[in-house]
Amino acid sequence: MNRLDEINLKKLKLLNSHIEDALKNPTSRYFDFGIYLKYFEEFEILRDYFKGNYSDLLLDLENKSKPESSKTTDFEGRGFLRRQVIIDLNKDIQKIISRSEFFETDSSKATQLTNNSQKIFISHGKSKDWIELQNFLTHQSRLETIELSQQANLGRTILQKLNEESKKCNYAIIVMSGDDTDPDGKAKARENVIHEIGFFQGTYGLDRVCILYEEGTSIPSNISGVVYIPYKHDEIKNTFLDLQKELKAAGF
Questions:
Q1: Fold of 119-250
Q2: Using CA atoms, how far apart are residues 203 and 171, in angstroms rounded to an integer?
Q3: Could you give the CA distance from residue 129 to residue 193 in angstroms, rounded to a whole number?
Q4: Could you read off the pLDDT of 133-144 as tens digits, one per residue?
Q5: Where does the CD-NTase-associated protein 12/Pycsar effector protein TIR domain start and stop, copy by copy (predicted)?
Q6: What is the DSSP letter of 24?
Q7: Through-space distance between the first and last CA atoms of the chain, rounded to whole angstroms
Q8: What angle do CA 94, 95, 96 make, to 5 degrees?
Q9: 211 forms bridges with which residues in the sheet?
Q10: CA 232 → CA 37, 114, 229, 241, distances in Å?
Q11: Residues 6+ apart with CB under 8 A from 91
Q12: In degrees rounded to 5, what are phi and psi of residue 178?
């Protein structure tokens, strides 16, 4: 991290301590809007800073608007905020803090990439399509792959494991299948897949990430511009010819 990162992370941790203190009393259901609004305003500034510099690690962090007062006479007319709003703020703060150990400069990323071997990282959701993909890459194309669940945990968190194992590769293929559903009942990709699209694009570069997209899966607005190879349900093999072209262009 650079010096400004460190300063802003300290501010975020201080803000987090204020929020956690407020939540210590489980019986507190309402909070003074006038006091807590400033915490949301401070968080917005810090959130935008870290998302601007590390968007690949924070794709799933929403740009929420500041909450509104209840507009009641509580707290001398300032109104209140409900406990859940404060809990949600705490979760967002924790999300940034928990990933801060992976913040790094562009120059350090470049150094890592030059030392990587020619391996391909396979990212996926719940669908088993990735197994057919891995078999194609290893047995037909004779390429080495890494898939996260096949690697030893070694006491690492999922994020630590992802960060460390990704450094052994210099290209990623992401299977974006419709494993979950949104509130409207439309198929969507799992959150880890959306996060990893940004993570690998930030780590390897846009030209070293290939997305295999299951048709009918909704695409979040924050990644709507990505290029992908489409396939129908259970027909991922139909992407392999185009995938070979992408891999050849990338030097495999």
A1: Rossmann fold (3.40.50)
A2: 9
A3: 14
A4: 999 999 999 999
A5: 119-232
A6: S
A7: 32
A8: 90
A9: 174, 228
A10: 47, 36, 10, 15
A11: none
A12: -85, 75
How many residues comprise the chain?
252
Beta bridge partners of 209: 172
What are the backbone dihedrals phi and psi of residue 189, each rounded to the nearest 5 degrees, phi first? -80, 155
- Alpha-carbon Rg for the chain in angstroms: 21
The CA distance from 185 to 29, in Å, is: 32
Q: For residue 249, what are its two tokens?
A: 């262009």
Q: How far apart are CA 61 and CA 54, in angstroms?
A: 11
pLDDT in tens, 164-197: 898 899 999 999 999 888 777 889 888 888 888 8
Nearest to 126, CA basis, from 216, 60, 173, 192: 192
CB-based contacts of 73-81 (< 8 A; 24+ apart in sequence): 74/30, 75/32, 75/33, 75/34, 78/32, 78/33, 78/34, 79/33, 80/30, 80/31, 80/32, 80/33, 81/30, 81/31, 81/32, 81/33, 81/36
Q: Which two tokens stand for residue 203?
A: 């780590």
- State the number of CA atoms in the 13 A half-sphere of 35 facing the CB: 13
Q: What is the mean pLDDT of the chain?
A: 87
